[in-house]
Here is the input.
Amino acid sequence: MVDSLKKPKVEEIRSGAKVPAKETILTPRFYTTDFEEMANMDISLNEEELQAILEEFRVDYNRHHFVRDEQFNQSWENIDGETRQVFIEFLERSCTAEFSGFLLYKELGRRLKGKNPVLAEIFNLMSRDEARHAGFLNKALSDFDLSLDLGFLTKSRKYTFFKPKFIFYATYLSEKIGYWRYITIYRHLEKNPNDMIYPIFNFFENWCQDENRHGDFFDAIMKAQPQTLNDWKARLWCRFFLLSVFATMYLNDVQRSSFYAAIGLDAREYDKLVIEKTNDTAGRVFPIVLDVENPEFYDRLETCVTNNDRLREIAGSNGLAPVKFLQKLPYYVSNGVQLIKMYLMKPIRVDQLEGTVR
Here is the structure.
């Protein structure tokens, strides 16, 4: 009885290999794109910066960083119950996201080789970074007697097709928000070492620099393709991707607030800081940013949080599937309304921000 409380039951494909989390609108996505369009991309408008970024990737600052040390040589039975469960979820989601990046970048490197050598090499080097991250996270799962079968994940996941410009928006924000997530956790634990429940967080300072460099690359490639940034359609799409990334993170993290509590953070306050910093960073390249200081923004997100709590209650209740769907429908509609209203909130035009340091 005690053991079952300490170690929540985890579904396995086979002994030690965890069944991947069910795909939902909030789970990490796997992407594919128009490789021919990417290969034919003209980068001459910003080739000097892209070459400088390539040289930085070649240096490979973190080539010796992702090496497990004696900190890991201990039992982790002290992480138990709900904390254990949400920590495993954190490792799995992070591993899946990093592995998704690896697959996309590796395929881009392969498809662009011989056609656009600068971009091909950059994508190959970024896939190297993502492979290290995914491998390090998967090894961390082994400390909890689990792992992800990444080969199975490759074949079983659905792939979302995005045109190159949408890949740029999505991955730029993913890398930059990853930077702010990692560095915020690292700085908190640096000041509060008693909240360090597992040594992977000690690696976050260098880790987040990989995320930052990857984001800088997508910043540079968008500047080489000014049509992705300088018209009314770009402003609409930037709003869409900013809202998608921020809302997804907030809803996920609040649902897993016990994980953040375990490392001494309040999930809502943590997310608000990360959103503020990422929104500000996006203003260096995007033509608009969201008005995340407007109280309406978080009020509507909180309505979605409440709706999602109710949806989970209905999903876990007894009843016929059609009946449960009808019970869920008002909450799905409400979530859609909240997101549309957030999207329609007046954004902030970066070119109208006088005297703001960005």
